[in-house]
Amino acid sequence: MTMKNYSILCAAITVTVVLGVLYIPGLSDAIEQVVLVFLATNAR
Amino acid sequence: MGALRIILQIVGIVVLIPAVTMVTLKIAKQDADGPSILFPGGKLISGELHTGPEPDWSFTDDVPTIELQLVDPLSSRTIFIMESDGKVYIPSGYMRSTLGKIWKDWAFQADAGDGLAVARINGVRYERQLIRIKAGPVLDGIVAKLVSKYGPGATREAIEAGDVWIFEMAPRGA
Question: I want to staple B169 with a disulfide (CB 3.0 to 4.6 A). Which of A44, B31, B128, B164 is the partner?
Fold first, then answer.
């Protein structure tokens, strides 16, 4: 993949992720629960 | 060369997605009226401000978590709460681990600063002062409540060694 196409893909992924986190109901809570479990497991 | 480039591009995307997710969540929550599950929020605004005599804190036995806001720096987080012998306490674990030092920066800030805080419990805000408890017989009751309420893990030895920090949420000026 050319650098130009890769940059466009990264930008599209960024926008998709931001909109998904902000606007899909329950997604941010689900992500936080996963991170919380990760931290509780590894922060020892 | 082409294969290496593809691998690096895939790695970049794998790193990008969680990084963007974490940054988005942190920014989205930082000015909110209270914290989310994991990310700090802003100033606790809503809810009646408690005035008058100290409440009977035993009602917190039925409260899994509270929202705690430091006055300086101004940020809030979700945290456990334990009542013991008429006083109320909050814990902060993993304090000597690398991840813990990043995750629990509020505890270092509270200990180093003036400890002024606001707790929101069941929608009521309480102005408090955080006082770290490092040792003493009072820890026995606190640990017993911590274990009975949240499960095994915390011990008096862990607190005295600095792995778990305990703060009393004392009345301001006490």
Answer: B128
